[in-house]
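The passage that follows is intended for readers who have already worked through the single-chain material. We present the inputs for a multi-component assembly, then the predicted structure in tokenized form, and finally a short commentary. You are encouraged to pause after the input and sketch how you expect the pieces to fit together before reading on.
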Amino acid sequence: MGDRKIGFIGAGNMASAIIRGITRQGLFRGDQIMVSAPSQDSRDRAVAGFGVQTTGDNRQAAAFGQILVLAVKPRVLDVIIPEIRTSVAEDALVISIAAGKNLKDLQEAFGRPVRMVRVMPNTPAMVGEGMSALTPNAQVTEDDRAFALKLFGVLGRAELVPETLMNAVTGLSGSSPAYIYMLIEAMADAGVAAGLPRAQAYTFAAQSVLGSAKMVLETGLVPGQLKDQVTSPGGTTIAGLRTLEEGGFRGLVMDGILAAVKKSEEMNG
Ligand SMILES: NC(=O)c1ccc[n+]([C@@H]2O[C@H](COP(=O)([O-])OP(=O)(O)OC[C@H]3O[C@@H](n4cnc5c(N)ncnc54)[C@H](OP(=O)(O)O)[C@@H]3O)[C@@H](O)[C@H]2O)c1
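Having made your guess, compare it with the prediction:
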């Protein structure tokens, strides 16, 4: 990233994940990064080992670089934008990861045209396997777009979506890690019920989910084809699938995700 500098407002889970990703991948050095948060504790925790600069003054972090990441809770953003808007450079690229904050409202809060990208990441970003959806506003240049995709690409995968699909993304990639953890827990419980030690049951369940996800992403085959490959006639898998179908597994998963999408629409319009 040459000598570009990047500021972060907020030093929580997501800011730490991004800082870890961009420093490990060599996109930015520690001295090209400044982070602000109210408590010394959370600044120290977020940036330990990365050599970044920290401050308790949001305006200092806002003025620091050509790129500014807003990584605070959505309700905090309402307070922060009026505080920092005159400190942000005219030509800065602002990236907001606040769930449910749309580009129009963010733009209005700044009170002037700002190059801005709205991003919906998810928590697996903390281990470099996140899924991020990005929507740039009209002011964003081709370079900004490529940069933002690269930035969130180091945290896993990143794709552009129209802002109208942000609620769908929130329900799918934003919320579904929780459903997958629940699935892994249930799979492991079944393993324990069938005699496996608890710790081993988690490993067998989690690695099976990880491996299956990689098969979908890397083989180019659709899930139905991969399912059929595992399902031999009269075998164990078809017995399991039949029970899941009888219990409405697929419909239930779809309903769960659509309930999250609906909730996101209700909350954010
Ligand atoms: N976690 C997710 O799965 C996820 C997924 C998608 C999007 N997001 C979005 O990412 C954003 C950050 O989420 P997170 O999980 O990283 O939250 P978090 O861990 O709670 O971190 C929030 C950070 O904001 C700081 N903060 C609070 N008030 C502040 C203020 N007035 N000025 C500057 N910093 C302030 C906090 O500092 P102190 O600790 O010092 O108070 C903390 O470092 C949210 O908008 C969320 O919607 C999160």
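Commentary: Strands lie at 6-9, 33-36, 53-55, 67-70, 93-96, 115-120, 130-136, 156-160. The first helix runs from residue 13 to 24. How closely did your sketch match?
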